[in-house]
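subagent[fold] <- orchestrator: predict structure for attached chain, return tokens only, no commentary.
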Amino acid sequence: MSPSESGRKENRSDSDKRPLSLARYEARVGFFFILPWLLGFVLLKLIPLLTALGFSFTNFNMLEPEKVRFVGLANYVYFWGDEMAGASLFGSIGYFLLTVPLELVIALALAAVFSSERLRARSLLRTLVFMPSILSAIAIFFIWSGLTTPNSGWLDRLILKPLNLPSSVGMGSFLLMITLWSVGPGFLILLGAMQGINKELYEAARVDGAGPLTRFFSITIPLISPAIFFTLVVNLTGAFGGSVLLDRGVTFRQVFSPMENYINYTMFSLSRLGYASALTWVMFLATMTLTVLLFQSARRWVYFPEEAACESL
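subagent[fold] -> orchestrator:
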């Protein structure tokens, strides 16, 4: 073998090692970046979740921990006969079906208005729309209760009574108010998706004679469907007491999911940790079932540019 050939092989081996070492370095750096999240997920999510699964097969009572014993599926069997648990679960589903579509429609309408180039002072108005979302839910509770309390609220005193109108609905409209005040995160997500649409598509549709509604439903909605899908999934878990787009200071005694309220009552008022853990897993399975159904339906109405590009090839 000539010296030139051996030198070429050495250069090739060195060039092969450099990308590999760079890839290892990037992998290590990336791992260190996600390490805090991994630790938080394992310590605060995975371990408590598996612990709750273990407790769900026991009759663990926090006031009498020495009497704990394995009961198998007894807690899950008891759930089927617990009318309060069933009502709470369907109440959470009803809360999702009521608030999430309403919040989505309002967020879509606001995003459509703010994406218009004719709107002036968009930065200021966008900030004002988002500001209520960062207020504490407890503050919203006191503001709304002081405004709509029947016979003594500000709305009754200043407007309804002088006009001889019926008294306000009181706290029955509080959930609606929370929905209207929490559209900020979803509004920003949908607004960002709308602003990312190529303007040439609208110009071409306008040249073809498409009106504003036709452009909105035929171009805007399909192209921002991934953002709509993401908002639906997150709001679904939030309706069942899971993650939310923005935590606004809701304590465990002031949650709006009936199922989560019942779990908190069972755990902290009745001290039945075993049954509360079983209820938690029932709610988790219900949420996962609805999420899987939502993902299955996404194939029919969500537009994924990557899949469309692959199909075109």
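orchestrator: received. Logging for downstream: Residues 1-55 form one domain. Residues 243-254 have pLDDT under 50 and may be disordered.
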